[in-house]
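example protein:
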Amino acid sequence: MPCEMCGKSVPFTKSVMIDGAKLEVCPECARFGDDYKASMSSQSSGRSTGSTGGSRTVIEQRLERREKRMGTKDVYAQAKTVEVVENYGKVVREAREAKGMDLDAFSKFISEKKGTIAKVEANRLVPDDKLVKKIEKALDVKLLETVLSGAGQSTGGNSSGKMTLGDFIKKK
């Protein structure tokens, strides 16, 4: 009889369970598995799913793991980004005026140029992270928000979701 593991021709084989499969192997290869009768009695005491119950669940588990591993992943699906709020200029101007400061006094208070603050309030300049922190601290406002990017947002005016040249051109 041939050994199902190494292929040697031997006078007798032994039934063993190797990785959830019943194999007829030579005595040398039998050390790689568990005795078939012992493994079947431990399975039947735990649950009564039949003779292939244990190996079937192992195979199912491996297939599930393989499915997860082989599936495509969208790395941008749950990506979170921090962005400046849409109407940041209005928020800054209203908070500054609520504190009773004019543009000149506020710019000196946070050690920035008056023109820079004026551009921020007019939405012509998006403040960098350092300036955002200064303004948030001085006026006690929130200028940054967490935004989910990726799968849920459309990137252009095209309904199919693909980018076209029209998405890159400014239309008047």
